[in-house]
Amino acid sequence: MTRFALTLEFDGGPFMGLQRQDHGPSVQQAVEDAAFAVTGEQVTLHSAGRTDSGVHALGMRSHLDIEKPIEPFRLMEALNALMRPAPVAVIACEIVPDDWHARFSCVGRRYLYRIRNRRAPLTLTRGREWLVPGPLDAEAMHRAAQALVGRHDFTTFRSAHCQAKDPVKTLDRLDVRRDDECVLIEAAARSFLHHQVRSMVGTLALVGLGRWQVEQVAEALAARERQKLGLNAPPDGLYFVEAIYLAPGESAG
What DSSP line would sit under 142-190, residue for residue? Predict the structure, then answer.
């Protein structure tokens, strides 16, 4: 049995999410079905994140175990050929130790959220960005975001359906910057609650639009009540960017 680590890029628009679902197509199903066609084996794809319907990935790390002897490059090429025309691509494939796990070995995750700040409708990036027509103050959004950095109870910013036992998370980074008509929000943490990034982005957008004061974000956090959330941003602009792992022999401390 050989464990292969895959790096996946996908457009989440046509899928019900990364994880296999009973009510529609998923990224996991696309990869597993392709792997079965290549190997004749029923495999299970394990991933670093559990992206929702409509959420995209630039570098999702996943793994699967295969008994049939096959080279990583050949596996990658075969999976990509068989997954067409689904918008999923394996952009890297390598053999990893049997005790390496895409989810449980991951020590950090990075997300990017893209807001297109203009009045004109989206054309080329429709479904891949959140269109906000009103002027956004990215600097105010960044100042407000710093209240969320650090170790906090993020109950206000978690989905009512979140299955995490503990709402306390450590947010390592939440930066907001403007790039022409785009406002980019970058978030990094060991792990996130369900809808945490989208909830933070939506609330920061209210600050950028002038509907909330900067200090209201800290007040919403301290309230620890979902009802105090300002806004949950749509999935369109959210991208899983990177999963981070320790090098062999490296300590988490």
Answer: HHHHGGGSEEEE-GGGS-TT---S--EEEEEEEEEEEETTEEEEEEEES
Mean pLDDT, residues 180-199 taken together: 97
Domain boundaries, the chain: 2-96, 107-244
User: Is the pLDDT assigned to residue 187 strictly greater than 90?
Assistant: yes
For 45-77, write each residue's pLDDT tens digit. 999 998 999 999 999 999 999 999 999 999 999
Which pLDDT score is estimated for 163? 79
Q: Which residue among 52, 153, 172, 180 is the active-site one?
A: 52
Q: Is 236 annotated in the active site?
A: no
Topology alike, domains 2-96 and 107-244: yes
Instruction: Write the CB contacts of 168 (distance below 8 Å, at least 6 apart in sequence).
Output: 151, 152, 153, 154
Beta strand segments in the chain, E: 2-10, 46-47, 56-66, 88-96, 106-116, 130-131, 150-153, 168-179, 182-189, 238-245
The reply to whether CATH 3.30.70.580 applies to domain 2-96 is yes
- pTM assigned to the model: 0.95
The C-alpha atoms of residue 123 and residue 131 are separated, in whole angstroms, by: 11
- The arrangement of secondary structure in 107-244, i.e. its CATH architecture, is 2-Layer Sandwich (3.30)
224-243 pLDDT tens trace: 999 989 899 999 999 999 99
